[in-house]
Amino acid sequence: MTRYSAEFHFELRACRWAEREWPPDGDGDRTVLVARQLGTKRRRWDTLVLECDLEGLRARSKFGPKRLDGDLLHVVRNAPDEWTYYRDALPHPGYPWRYVREAIHRADDRGVLETRRDGNRIQIRRRWPYPDWLERIVAVENKPDLDASAARSLASQLEYDVAMALADEVWVATRKTGERVEPVLFEDLPVEAGVLALEPDSLIAEVEWYPRSLPVDDPGTRILEQPAGGERDGSAARFEYVDPAEKTERRLAIAERAYERGWRSFVETMRPDCRHFQLRSHAGNQLVPHCDATGCRQTATECSGSCPEFEPEPPAWRTRGWPIEGGPGKRCRRLLEDRRSDRRPGL
């Protein structure tokens, strides 16, 4: 198995490539945010590339590095310029007002909304208008080795993406083989999905198939169940329509989560507090996880408390410089967080 057969390692390289080189055709210098392992309850993508308005992204930084969930977005996006009773200022959310009041208090605690009391009434006023910072969402599925079974599973996932049209574009990124025609092009994938062949060491990518833009402003079709297939299967697919307004809210909620997390958050699912955990520089000035005990790049599944090589940092490491610096594990987190913040102008 090559070192990029594991999807996790290939995924980190694909994220770094997107951060440096997006868009694939080199048409213009776009401001992008890249995140990984994000999506909805029914669908999670390997990589998300958010194409952003630079000035809007700077204005978004006023609301802090943490995401605004759906309840907070409902409040800050509709907050008035002047003091107004919150029920008169905000559209009905479709759920009890008590949850809106909770969101108002949370927004006030975070300093992104002003509140005051007028008798028993809570009045609100915006601090800043919420900017229109998101332009497009591009979803990428990473498959370094696309065998037949993986292709069948991927095809149904991409069909869901195309029908739902929650992202503006969908892509498949696979490892470049060097063959005259990349094998992924022979797979039965939706023609609306683009195909990108990436050489992970050099971070050189070629577009093998350009995607079609999906109608994100139109109603989406959520596929609930597909026929199992076969000659005797005459069953119909089950689906439901999704209102464009709901799609807009979900897109913004996904973008907020991507803004908070980025793609360098892999240490949140690994054990940087292990004495064997390291971050090593790779081509393209990228920091990747490395296990000193096994001498290889570990995956998030391998790097856990159940690993037989796991050893907590010695107390002397953890307490040196506490609480400002801490041990190596804490410094790994801080280093990745600093690089993540560099991608969010204004922070």
TrEMBL record:
Highest taxon of source: Archaea
Tell me the segments the record calls region Disordered.
318-347
Bias type Basic and acidic residues, positions? 334-347
What name goes with this protein? Uncharacterized protein
Q: What organism is listed for this UniProt entry?
A: Natrarchaeobius chitinivorans
